Queue: 2 jobs
Job 1
Amino acid sequence: MSRDGMLIRRISANEVDVFRRIRLEALQTEPSSFASRYEDWVDLPVEEWRQRLLDPVFVAFSRDEPVGIIGLLRQSPSKMAHRATLVMVYLRASFRGTGLAKDLLDAVVDFARGQGILQLELAVSAENPGAIGFYLREGFSEVGRIPGGLLDGGREIDDILMARRLII
Ligand SMILES: CC(C)(COP(=O)(O)OP(=O)(O)OC[C@H]1O[C@@H](n2cnc3c(N)ncnc32)[C@H](O)[C@@H]1OP(=O)(O)O)[C@@H](O)C(=O)NCCC(=O)NCCS
């Protein structure tokens, strides 16, 4: 996808710098939105970052600068390989509400369909109404809830599980 200086594409295992920049920005600016902490990722060796890029990671660029990211983790057991989980979903605040998050998600959905994936799933904090609103609008529905799924600063927060069927 390319529009007004925006570009969305899958990044390769050689693009650790891009991945590192946008992932660390996400963890630093939205610490309550993710299950990982900035401290968990900031000191990872380059090889570890590269390994994590073996699974598909899509990035939205604004004039060559990474501003959004979504990763896709496919289930490996053969009877579950039609399912994949969205991870690391993030868009820089100044680009929110523009439709770019939908464009980024659409790129991942197109890719997933091309891989024969029939269902996308994700987990989101029950205290993240903005993301939940986005997912509901994009065709996800709540399929479950893990009570106290996240433990943050000694406080338990429910994790909401969502799923979206992909019509081929
Ligand atoms: C999740 C994210 C990528 C969505 O991108 P976005 O540009 O904000 O999404 P949009 O503006 O297209 O859609 C958000 C929807 O939620 C709604 N929404 C926003 N804030 C809301 C709130 N506090 N309560 C209820 N709904 C809300 C908006 O109204 C919008 O729906 P609408 O267009 O039908 O009105 C982005 O908000 C983000 O990066 N958030 C921080 C990181 C994060 O939470 N990641 C998810 C981890 S699971």
Note: The chain has one domain: 2-165.
Job 2
Amino acid sequence: MKALVVSDLSITFQGGSKGFAAVRGVSFDVAPKETLGLIGPSGCGKTTVLRAIAGLNTNWQGSIAIFGEPLRPEVKITGELRSSIQMVFQDPYSSLHPRHRISRILGEPLSVRKVVNVEQHVRDALDQVGLPSTAADRYPHQLSGGQRQRVAIARALLLKPKLLLLDEPTSALDVSVQAEILNLLNDLKASHGMTFVLVSHDPGVVAHMCDRVAAMRAGRVTGVAGRDDIVRAFDTDRFELQEISGPA
Ligand SMILES: Nc1ncnc2c1ncn2[C@@H]1O[C@H](COP(=O)(O)OP(=O)(O)O)[C@@H](O)[C@H]1O
Ligand SMILES: [Mg+2]
């Protein structure tokens, strides 16, 4: 069974006389424990696709199935399915509540789900992402960008997701910190047996992380390439999105 199947997904934003078709018939699938990259220029619809899968945008057409379970746009995702899909956002500066301590940012989703021993879970989660337990007492502004993104990853992991949606998780970070976060994600993926969809506009990040990559342009998937093709594209220094092709 596939971890994720997206078929003929279309998303139109209202406004203007007939709206704006940001996503136009996108299809791809992801096998369990695979990392699929979604790459393409700014504005091509990558974040919009992820938000639909995460249930953050419910105004879509087509079909999305997660581990065999179809999502319906008009039905709010709840319960176990909700926990099993988590998203890490591009900007760790705006994705954490500025006036909440890290202990609350991490603890609240657990308390809501009536998990016991929240403090211990929070300490363990911080430890997993390489942060000291003292980070729990801090506010986001007291942490660096890389540390904040570690907190965002910890928050996603606390709910034990099977599918992690990563929206340019390192693009707001210093180059020196990017590799640390990407390696952390790969380690956590292996130890938790997760499936990733990783959005990026950076071919280097995609080549480092992904088993396959789907290239997007202007709301459409223009091709899907396997790992070897990504690497070859780099070898020849000719990486161009439109040259990636192959069976979707
Ligand atoms: N809430 C929205 N309302 C109207 N247009 C939007 C909205 N969100 C995104 N868009 C538009 O949809 C297109 C795709 O956006 P996005 O998915 O954020 O692109 P990407 O993540 O690939 O940079 C862009 O043209 C963007 O301006
Ligand atoms: Mg985006």
Note: The chain has eight helices and ten strands.
